[in-house]
């Protein structure tokens, strides 16, 4: 075993700040791998199961910091991180903070700058998993920040998930995470909209899902080809569905006739209409990426096409 591999198997001392469902799962996985865990939660009464398994429950944040060199924050919002860490900034000097709280990219960068100002090593992480998945197959953890901090903390990080390092920019992991969630939530919104339309004819949502899921699954691989077109910047590549052909007016009218809220599909139609109004109607539907990346004022004609 090489010295690097040997260090990867050495137990670490880790303090988890925040014992919600995810924080508890993170602490449990560390205990499973033999790491020394200290747990703290703002509200008392959580973590009893972790204590029974060998974790130390800290009564204060300061006590949690005293017991570990690696501090993991898994809190509710960015404001919660600052409220928890600002009072102990000097005590954190020389320690490592791994923040796994959901933050925007700029919040992650701001926290990274704050950490650097106080002599704290910092890594931002974004978990792509549910609490039961932690430590098991399928869990992913996007991390960004200084590469040396990433390498040094891998024994802890790999306890939880497969690691994807997104580079030195502290905000990168959050950006990719939230971008993927944006795609996921809009996909589900589309499916719920379809279910609402079908419900007007008495179709249960479960029946709609049974028919929609295989169709959507068959369509998803096409995104890889569209992504290549976007990267190439040529929306005239043969084989694409044109923006003119992609007009969604019939879907909007059908939704309205069904009494369903058509706001989600109208948003997509607005993107299509904008590019058509700019003169690109014969180009591929993937061109709506340009409206999403560089929003431009919708022309009057494009706005009328959405109505």
Mean pLDDT: 93
Shape: elongated
Order of helices and strands: HEHEHEHEHHEHEEHHEHHHHHHH
- What are the low-pLDDT stretches, counting only 5+ consecutive residues below 50? 1-8, 298-307
Major sheet details: 8 strands, mixed
Pfam family, one: NAD_binding_2
Keywords: Oxidoreductase
GO molecular function: DNA binding; NADP binding; nucleosome binding; oxidoreductase activity
Domain NADPH-dependent reductive aminase-like C-terminal: 169-294
Describe the structure.
Residues 14-164 form the 6-phosphogluconate dehydrogenase NADP-binding domain. InterPro entries: 6-PGluconate_DH-like_C_sf, 6PGD_dom2, 6PGDH_NADP-bd, HIBADH-related, HIBADH-related_NP60_sf, NAD(P)-bd_dom_sf, RedAm-like_C. This is 3-hydroxyisobutyrate dehydrogenase. Residues 169-294 form the NADPH-dependent reductive aminase-like C-terminal domain. Pfam families: NAD_binding_2 (PF03446), RedAm-like_C (PF21761). This protein is of the alpha/beta class and 307 residues long. The protein has two domains: 13-168, NAD(P)-binding Rossmann-like Domain (Rossmann fold), CATH 3.40.50.720; 204-293, Orthogonal Bundle (N-(1-d-carboxylethyl)-l-norvaline Dehydrogenase, domain 2), CATH 1.10.1040. The protein is 51% helix and 12% strand. It contains 16 helices and eight strands. The protein has helices at residues 3-8, 21-32, 48-52, 61-66, 78-85, 89-92, 105-117, 147-152, 154-160, 172-199, 205-219, 222-232, 249-257, 263-277, 288-293, 300-306, and strands spanning 13-17, 36-40, 56-57, 70-73, 96-99, 121-128, 140-145, 162-165. Strands 3-2-1-4-5-6-7-8 form an eight-stranded mixed beta sheet, with helices on both faces. The protein starts with a helix and ends with a helix. Mean pLDDT is 93; it is low at 1-8 and 298-307.
